[in-house]
């Protein structure tokens, strides 16, 4: 999608520090890390947010979680654990309107809300 930052990152029009890529998914380091390891995992298909998912996207969401598991294994933080965060819409604090899952790791994470 034009004028979408993360679509531009997928196309290589905006630089990113890639962590993982397959035919459906792209993952890269967050530019403003909130933990020692902070990775964003996104679908290559432009979906604005969780609120825009349909039943047809169910396999894709499963693939995202499998990719996160692979990344956790490859980057060595699977054993110690990690946190996955998705912000959805205005009240959720979503700033980039291309579905993304924050993966935070590398320290004992605090500030649990739930
Ligand atoms: P959210 O607030 O959930 O929409 O998260 C957007 C995330 O994208 C923030 O954590 C930003 O630091 C991150 N971000 C914004 N621009 C870039 C970029 N060019 N490369 C990597 N991460 C980015
Ligand atoms: Zn996009």
Commentary on this structure:
A 5-stranded antiparallel sheet has the order 1-2-3-5-4, covered by helices on one side. Helix content is 25%, strand content 21%. With 114 residues, it is an alpha+beta fold. The chain contains 3 helices and 5 strands, in the order H-E-E-E-H-E-H-E. A hairpin with a 7-residue loop joins strand 2 and strand 3. It is globular, with a radius of gyration of 14 Å. The chain has helices at 5-11, 58-75, 89-92, and strands at residues 18-21, 25-29, 37-43, 83-85, 101-105. It has one domain (5-105): HIT family, subunit A (2-Layer Sandwich), CATH 3.30.428.10. Zinc ion is lined by residues 1, 4, 6-7, 46, 98.
Secondary-structure map with pairings?
Layout: H1 5-11, E1 18-21, E2 25-29, E3 37-43, H2 58-75, E4 83-85, H3 89-92, E5 101-105
Antiparallel strand pairs: 1-2, 2-3, 3-5, 4-5
């Amino acid at each position: 999608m034009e004028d979408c930052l993360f679509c531009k990152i997928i196309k290589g029009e905006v630089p990113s520090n890639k962590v993982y890529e397959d035919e459906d998914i792209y993952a890269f380091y967050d530019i403003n890390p909130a933990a020692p390891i902070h990775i964003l995992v996104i679908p290559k298909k432009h979906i604005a947010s969780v609120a825009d998912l349909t039943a047809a996207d169910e396999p894709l969401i499963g693939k995202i979680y499998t990719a996160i598991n692979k990344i956790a294994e490859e980057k060595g933080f699977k054993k110690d654990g990690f946190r996955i965060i998705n912000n959805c819409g205005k009240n959720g604090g979503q700033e980039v309107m291309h579905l993304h899952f924050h993966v935070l790791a590398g320290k004992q994470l605090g500030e649990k809300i739930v």
